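Researcher: Sequence recovery benchmark, item below. Answer with residues only.
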């Protein structure tokens, strides 16, 4: 039987800590290389992290894996820079510009919050390829919009929750109330309803704005999950970045199921104390998107425009590391049917 998991992110070496970018705050990781900032040669690949930064066991760490894989394979440098609290778009523009001027190519903003900054920086450095993860609004000749059908993986997470719950109540916790996270919520709710319309979905967003900590506050995630569990949820799915660590902790403490996001959270070292309660994770191959963009630049044919990954392309899916999930024959058959339906178009997954 074909497994539903479609993504495997390789484990790679941790980058060396180096000095931070002037006036942009945060720490960075870097390896030496050559380059001149004119786009004709590359010092390496660079990341500007989203809120939560490295160590979120999710979105940013997946981007890091892609950067490190590219640096190792192509034998050049890498640099990753942390965000600062309360920073402006001007701070982001400065950060991206400094990376481009230093000779990094591509330069990738990890997260939709970088959209205005990528748009401006890409005009200043037309010979450098920029990438932005989770945004498709930047329409510049030297920008790749790296986006995903998150709703498809979330649909499968919904199928999983509906077939796993005993209380007939499951939960969704989104980090921030924005359209991107609505895609996760919509797919999850549809997957639950299509599988068992009698299952109730509790839904909550941690904050209205990212700067209020929706993606970076495990305590907020923990409190929200505890509330949903008290209200009867025995499976809780999060799309909340670093805040999701608190969701997983709360679920494990209550001996309920958690469904992770972005990376295979069952195998994350920081979450190993809770791994037996991480049923699966809705994956999106951020690592692959970062690596593929770097590879396209290295080969002299930089990818630009909207680059969207889906179930059909293998860019999203479910992790199958937990034996409880993998060995559930009924669940795997249902997921196989759902996957085929999404891929052949007979299942249309909503995005809002």
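Model:
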């Amino acid at each position: 039987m074909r497994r539903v998991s479609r993504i495997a992110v390789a484990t790679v070496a941790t980058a060396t800590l180096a000095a931070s970018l002037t006036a942009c705050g945060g720490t960075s990781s870097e390896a030496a290389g050559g380059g001149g900032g004119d786009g004709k040669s590359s010092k390496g690949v660079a990341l500007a992290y989203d809120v939560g930064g490295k160590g979120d066991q999710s979105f940013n760490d997946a981007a890091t894996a892609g950067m490190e894989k590219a640096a190792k394979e192509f034998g050049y440098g890498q640099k990753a820079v942390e965000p600062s609290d309360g920073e402006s778009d001007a701070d982001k523009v400065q950060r991206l510009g400094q990376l481009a001027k230093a000779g990094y190519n591509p330069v990738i903003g990890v997260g939709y919050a970088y959209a205005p900054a990528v748009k401006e920086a890409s005009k200043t450095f037309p010979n450098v390829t920029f990438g932005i993860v989770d945004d498709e609004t930047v329409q510049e000749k030297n920008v790749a919009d790296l986006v995903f059908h998150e709703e498809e993986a979330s649909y499968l997470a919904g199928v999983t929750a509906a077939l796993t719950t005993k209380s007939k109540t499951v939960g969704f916790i989104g980090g921030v109330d924005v359209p991107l996270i609505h895609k996760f919520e919509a797919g999850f709710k549809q997957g639950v309803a299509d599988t068992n319309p009698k299952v109730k979905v509790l839904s909550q967003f941690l904050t209205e704005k990212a700067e209020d900590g929706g993606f970076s506050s495990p305590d907020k995630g923990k409190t929200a999950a505890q509330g949903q569990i008290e209200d009867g949820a025995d499976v809780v799915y999060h799309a909340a970045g670093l805040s999701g660590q608190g969701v997983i902790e709360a679920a494990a403490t209550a001996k309920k199921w958690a469904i992770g996001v972005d990376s295979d959270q069952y195998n994350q070292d920081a979450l190993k104390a809770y791994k037996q309660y991480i049923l699966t994770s809705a994956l999106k191959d951020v690592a692959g998107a970062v690596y593929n963009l770097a590879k396209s630049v290295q080969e002299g044919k930089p990818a630009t425009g909207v680059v969207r990954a889906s179930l059909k392309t293998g860019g999203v899916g479910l992790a199958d590391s937990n034996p409880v999930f993998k060995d559930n024959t009924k669940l795997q058959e249902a997921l196989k049917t759902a996957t085929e339906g999404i891929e052949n178009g007979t299942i249309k997954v909503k995005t809002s």
